[in-house]
Amino acid sequence: MLPRTLGDLRSSEFGNESYRTRNIKDEMRINLIRKLQKKEPIFSGIIGYEETVVPQVVNAILSRHNMILLGLRGQAKSRILRELTAFLDEVLPVVAGCEINDNPFNPICRSCRDLIQEMGDRTPIEYRGREERYVEKLATPDVTIADMIGDIDPIKAAKGGHASGSELSVHYGLLPRANRGIFSINELPDLAGKIQVGLFNIMQEGDVQIKGYPVRLPLDVVIVFSANPEDYTARGKIVTPLKDRIGSEIKTHYPATLEHGVAITEQEAWTRRHSSRTVLIPEFIKQVVEAIAFKARADQRIDKRSGVSQRLPISCLENVISNAERRAIMCGEDQVIPRIADIYSALPAITGKIELEYEGELKGADTIARDLIRQAVQMIFRRYYPTTDFKQVIDWFEMGGQLKISDAEAGASVLNRFEGVQGLIDKVGTLDVRSDSPVGLRVAAAELILEGLHSIDKISRSEERGFTAIDRKGTQELYRDYTIERNRYKKPLN
User: Fold this and answer.
1) 6-251: which CATH architecture?
2) pTM
3) Residue 148: which residues within 8 A CB-CB, separation 6 or more?
4) Which of 206, 289, 311, 453 has an alpha carbon 20 to 30 Å from 10's alpha carbon atom?
5) Do 330 and 350 touch, CB atoms closer than 8 A?
């Protein structure tokens, strides 16, 4: 049973001298050290930062620093900041009714000091949980000093009969309300310069002054920020004196490996549908979806300053599953198994998440997205089939074979036609697909092979999903015509 009065609190575990005098930075440091000693995970759900970002965050906490996470969009900056609450105590005793979570043993608020003086050990005590001690603000240009720090409330002063410069007439802003907790500002460069200047005192001296009146509050707070490097030039900047007062600047990054990316997407995407149908996502489909983001981040037609968020493969995979689910519902299938055709149907989840350079704008977002899918398929195809001979399959098309499939066609029907392509089904074993695997899985594997052969120009495919042999002669004639046309314009003018 937690103590409910100041007298009971004094005689409890909260009443020892070390607890009374420690601040929040010491609290986070102590809890972090305990986690490290027990070898517990530092963060939950953060993948790919174990050797880079996480050690730097740990060092910042051990150093009792305020910190800023600097990185492009979709790099889990906000998530890491919210996870910092794991280093707070489970509960924190505060003076009941206090707006700024005042410490019962060392109150800084005038009303709390008056209450304790009047009631003594009978002063009521409340408790704040970890989540209640985290205050987050998205920086926008319209944020004012009053929003962040506070203002004198004339109505409160009039009703209470207080002087306008009295602490009892103060309406506290977000920062004082985060006292004895964590205050997070997202997208710091968007905050007006004069507001950033208003943060100097709290970061350096640990107190705030309200509206020019002699009201000083020595707050106990950890201030953390996030920022996107693009914002430094596009919308605003971090003023130098504020940046100088931030103890640690930690740079985040996108997943370094395809495996890390797949694990993140799998963790965040809504893949478990509330349906009677079983969702089975082939591993190679997950890899193709993730490879789209990897290829986009390296593509010269896409703006590098904006980055390609991890939300792209997450949204794309959700759309891929939905298209497969739609097919399963229409065809009466019991299993939802995505295939490459479903990735092409997920273009709306890709085009809205890439910022194009001038060259990309000329081609159009849809064209770029389709090209990214083709590159991603090629990447995964080469990973599984680096040296495999597909001569039988290619010869089948060279001898006049044609194949046209639809993303809405039932798996059994498509598989029946795939089996007619000489040597195709024999190669799906490399993708960990067996002869007794579900029909949809065999179809997905065979379609990856066909799309892979198309991506390396071994067979042709129309946008209507028709696979045919490459028209080598037609390609040569087209190239020759292009060469003639180009040279014609090089003739000197008379």
Assistant:
1) 3-Layer(aba) Sandwich (3.40)
2) 0.86
3) 137, 173, 174, 175, 195, 198, 199
4) 206
5) no
